[in-house]
Amino acid sequence: MRKWFKNCILLLIAACTVLAITACSSKDSLQKVRVAEVTRSIFYAPQYVAIEKGFFKEEGLDVELKTTWGGDKTMTAVLSDGADIALVGSETSIYVYAQGSTDPVINFAQLTQTDGTFLVSREKVENFDWEQLKGSTFLGQRKGGMPQMVGEFVLKKHGIDPHADLDLIQNIDFANIANAFASGTGDFVQLFEPTASVFEKEGKGYIVASFGEESGQVPYTTFMAKESYLDKNEATVEKFVRALYKAQQWVEENDADEIAKLVQPYFEDSDVETLAVVVDRYKSQGSFAKDMKLTEDGWNNLKTIMDEAGELPDDVEYEKLVNTKIVENVIKK
């Protein structure tokens, strides 16, 4: 009996060892991809879905995600090899190119195709009209970034000169804009979700308009990497895009409540109900780029917005900074 018991123990230890080795080998076999996202936002729901549903792991990838809080910091991470892939506005690739980079940053897949910010008023407005912004203090986004440029584009569309018709504040760091408004700065503010909806729920502000609906389609947030990284890791990047494509389709096919429940761990300060409202808002205005292809029309719209904001340093052709081959391969397969 004692011998039998001893043999069972030995077999159990051996089985556990094999399982441990298998688990380690499985983890080690995954290829690490370091992704730097410009901010943490429900606007990027498909990316979090790809992680939570295991779509990246299905492709043999171990995605390490970090939030870098700002376009300049995100691009610095990629250019200094602190990250392999950036999720950031396409305008940043133009800035890098215009500085004479010998290893340009290439846009290879689009995550969102509209602006993701909303106009929030400090006071409740029953019948909002853009004319109401004239003479107000407007807390805008960082100068040179897509939110700020789209914001100014929309204001001009409604006959408002952002530098003459209102008191425009642009000197507050991206990560502190919401806190500044909550502390009493500004009559209106341009905010991402879920912050805008949280403010509305807490009575700190009221959503009165969507910059995404007003500005039309634009490559607002894309995945990009240095040309040298794409050349050396094309197969890996295709797997990365394939996982994201699955996530985009999953988001398209599932309701807001289901999506909110899945991504809620990324937004510990927001409840599922609020997140569902935000997801539904983004889905209804077509923010998620389900086919992930950055179009030439979208690129030209981006340049128009940058030019009108006085921020276009170089009229860069679509083919120079956009690679659609990877997305096309994924869709074809």
From TrEMBL:
Q: Specify the SsuA/THI5-like domain's residue ranges.
A: 45-254
Pfam families (alphabetical): NMT1 (PF09084)
The principal localisation class reads periplasm
- Is Zinc-finger a UniProt keyword of this protein? no
Stored InterPro entries:
SsuA/THI5
Give the record's keywords alphabetically. Answer: Signal
Q: Which Gene3D superfamilies match?
A: Periplasmic binding protein-like II (3.40.190.10)
Return the GO cellular component terms, semicolon-separated.
Answer: periplasmic space
Q: Where is this protein found? A: Periplasm
Q: Where is the signal peptide?
A: 1-20
Extract the SUPFAM superfamilies matched here: Periplasmic binding protein-like II (SSF53850)
The record's similarity note reads: Belongs to the bacterial solute-binding protein SsuA/TauA family.
What name does the UniProt record give this protein?
A: ABC transporter substrate-binding protein
